């Protein structure tokens, strides 16, 4: 006798789960009925529910290859009751021969002796002592007390009396289960879930991932609320439930704190959840695209952790401020502290500025594998734009890390201002960088060097040259010319070069301590050639000097987080170097609006080699200090 099948029935064929979506004939096939099934694994199907241009059923998942037709006579895996599955896995000593407890472990043809497993099996056999139970993928069909009864009563899914008789038997076992995983089973009605939970008075966590439920009508009963009274964690991943069904289901879990709704194809959350105590919500792997689609979540006052991982989500601002159904004022996620935006569609750095607006309490953020992370220095940008976060991609943000990121951001925006040619462009830069002005008040306001309005045509020699300013202290220049004089040996050994004044003469003449020379140099020459050119400018030998490029970026001088304020280096030579550098900048009219005792210009040596000068220098101007080796 063929088994009776019905719409919405859950079946397992060789361990692969599916749901019956159609029962009846199919045109242009052999006589007899077919089962139109939707596979949980879409790769096992062949179509979307249509055959030869005629549609027989609709796949809820929407996958184009999730459906196929099978004969009702095809052998299926036997369903189990909850208690039978529990006994089979955790008390296998009473099970049939060939169970895992009686199977011998063999490696290379040799039987391995199991040591200590008898004690573990005895502990697991005490079902009343189990606290964590995982019955994932064991073909659990409901509360019925045996596989045969589950199969016989399945033809009458509305027969609640039969089910509750088995609930009483389950209740007599006095189980102490706290965490229960019933994922990827044959559950199809919430009556069975209510029956199982009603017998587990200590249950606090329930995982129902991968099941397919036919309706939620039975959840309106008082028995549902009593059965789910103590549950604080609920997993409904990959159940393909609509948002309205989820709202209805969760309204019976009054103690709920953690809710997982991943992989349900959700695109818009229309109505707010009724349980206001939820503080952790997982919406990963859905179809949510914007802040507007999750606006109703702002009515969860205790929500502190939200995952939007692998959604086509962006942080673009809505055209109109979104509002709740109960309030006409603009709202924010005021209590949210942890946000997962990994693998989302966020690509624009400026969109990060809205994070502080809509998530003002945010402290932890994940952005891994989002297009945003492909942007150069994305981590520094994220830290600088979000002043409240203390952890980014599982990395703690230290005080030094934040300071470096904010200074980098300041200098980068300053370069944008330097490139702006009109007031409208400057205003646009300010609007895209709202953190610029507050950071200037915290650190300093960068010097903005406006570019010359006349720009050379691309490809011309003028467009490829840079105005270099080289400067060397008179003291270093005298030493270089005295030690490596270009004059004949007899002249240089008898007395110092006449062109170099004596120290006391230099002081009396009050000459500047720094000598500068300016030269236009193509960026395509090698650093070897640059070194030789500088040596000719100052009439010294190239191997006696090194070139130090002064960048537009600034670094803090000394100091640690544990010290009060900042301090300079204890090395006296470093102090002299800093003082000499400040004097040189003062002579060139380069005055900064910042505390010079705390900051110094970042320096970089240009090594002699075959690389082009353009590898180290960019822009139309460069300042290089010449020092003795």
Looking at this protein, list some descriptive labels.
single chain; 629 residues; alpha/beta; eleven-stranded mixed beta sheet; five-stranded mixed beta sheet; 17 helices; 26 strands; elongated
Give the SSE layout:
Blueprint: E1 10-13, E2 16-24, E3 34-39, E4 50-51, E5 54-55, E6 67-70, E7 80-81, H1 82-90, E8 106-107, E9 110-111, H2 117-125, E10 132-134, E11 140-142, H3 147-153, H4 160-171, E12 179-181, H5 190-198, E13 205-207, H6 222-227, E14 233-235, H7 243-250, E15 258-260, E16 280-282, E17 305-307, E18 338-340, H8 353-358, E19 364-366, H9 378-385, E20 391-392, E21 395-396, H10 399-419, H11 423-432, H12 436-442, E22 465-473, H13 474-483, H14 489-494, H15 503-509, E23 514-522, H16 527-538, E24 545-556, H17 572-587, E25 599-606, E26 621-628
Parallel strand pairs: 7-11, 10-12, 12-13, 13-14, 14-15, 15-16, 16-17, 17-18, 18-19, 19-20, 22-26
Antiparallel strand pairs: 1-2, 2-3, 3-6, 4-5, 8-9, 20-21, 22-23, 24-25, 24-26
Helix pairs in contact: 4-5, 9-10
């Amino acid at each position: 006798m063929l088994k009776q099948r019905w719409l919405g029935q859950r079946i397992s064929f060789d361990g692969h789960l599916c749901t019956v979506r159609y029962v009846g004939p199919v045109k242009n096939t052999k006589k007899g009925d077919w089962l139109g099934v939707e596979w949980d694994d879409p790769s096992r199907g062949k179509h979307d529910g249509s055959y030869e241009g005629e549609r027989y059923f609709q796949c809820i998942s929407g996958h184009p290859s999730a459906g196929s037709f099978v004969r009702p006579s095809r052998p299926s895996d036997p369903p189990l009751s909850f208690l039978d599955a529990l006994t089979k896995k955790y008390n296998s000593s009473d099970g049939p021969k060939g169970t895992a407890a009686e199977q011998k472990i063999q490696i290379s043809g040799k039987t391995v002796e199991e040591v200590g497993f008898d004690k573990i099996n005895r502990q697991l056999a005490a079902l009343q002592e189990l606290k964590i139970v995982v019955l994932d993928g064991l073909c659990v069909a409901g509360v019925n007390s045996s596989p045969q009864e589950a199969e016989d009563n399945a033809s009458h899914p509305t027969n609640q009396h039969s089910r509750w008789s088995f609930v009483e038997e389950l209740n007599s076992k006095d189980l102490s289960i706290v965490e229960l995983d019933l994922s990827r089973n044959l559950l199809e009605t919430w009556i069975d879930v209510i029956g199982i939970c009603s017998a587990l008075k200590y249950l606090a966590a329930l995982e129902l991932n991968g099941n397919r439920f036919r309706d939620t009508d039975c959840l309106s009963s008082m028995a549902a609320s009593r059965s789910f009274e103590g549950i604080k964690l609920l997993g409904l991943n990959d159940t393909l439930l609509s948002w309205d069904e989820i709202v209805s289901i969760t309204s019976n879990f009054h103690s709920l704190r953690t809710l997982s709704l991943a992989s349900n194809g959700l695109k818009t959350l229309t109505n707010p959840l009724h349980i206001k105590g939820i503080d952790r919500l997982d919406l990963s792997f859905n179809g949510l695209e914007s802040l507007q689609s999750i606006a109703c979540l702002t009515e969860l006052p205790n929500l502190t952790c939200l995952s939007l991982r692998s959604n086509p989500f962006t942080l673009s601002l809505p055209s109109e401020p979104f509002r709740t159904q109960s309030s006409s004022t603009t709202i924010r996620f005021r209590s949210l502290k942890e946000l997962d935006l990994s693998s989302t569609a966020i690509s624009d750095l400026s969109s990060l500025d809205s994070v502080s607006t809509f998530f003002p309490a945010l402290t932890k953020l994940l952005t891994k594998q989002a297009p945003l992370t492909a942007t150069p220095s994305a981590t520094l940008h994220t830290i600088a734009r979000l002043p409240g976060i203390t952890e980014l991609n599982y990395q703690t943000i230290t005080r030094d890390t934040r300071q470096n990121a904010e200074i980098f951001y300041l200098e980068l925006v300053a370069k944008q201002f330097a490139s702006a040619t009109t007031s409208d462009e400057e205003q646009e830069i300010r609007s895209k960088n709202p953190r610029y002005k507050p950071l200037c008040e915290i650190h300093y306001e960068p010097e903005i060097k406006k570019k010359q309005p006349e720009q050379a045509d691309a490809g011309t020699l003028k467009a490829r040259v840079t105005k270099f300013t080289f400067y060397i202290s008179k003291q270093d220049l005298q030493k270089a010319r005295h030690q490596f004089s270009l004059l004949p040996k007899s002249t240089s050994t008898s007395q110092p070069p006449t062109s170099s004044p004596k120290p006391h003469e230099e002081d009396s003449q009050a000459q500047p301590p720094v000598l500068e020379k300016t030269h236009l140099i193509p960026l395509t020459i090698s650093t070897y050639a640059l070194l030789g050119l500088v040596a000719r400018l100052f009439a010294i030998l190239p191997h006696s000097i090194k070139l130090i490029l002064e960048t537009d970026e600034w670094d803090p001088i000394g100091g640690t987080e544990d010290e009060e304020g900042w301090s300079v280096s204890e090395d006296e030579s470093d102090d002299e170097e800093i003082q000499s550098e400040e004097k040189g900048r003062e002579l060139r009219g380069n005055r900064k609006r910042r505390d010079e005792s705390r900051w110094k210009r970042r320096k970089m040596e240009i090594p002699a080699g075959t690389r082009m000068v353009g590898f180290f220098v960019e822009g139309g101007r460069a300042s290089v200090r010449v020092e003795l080796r």
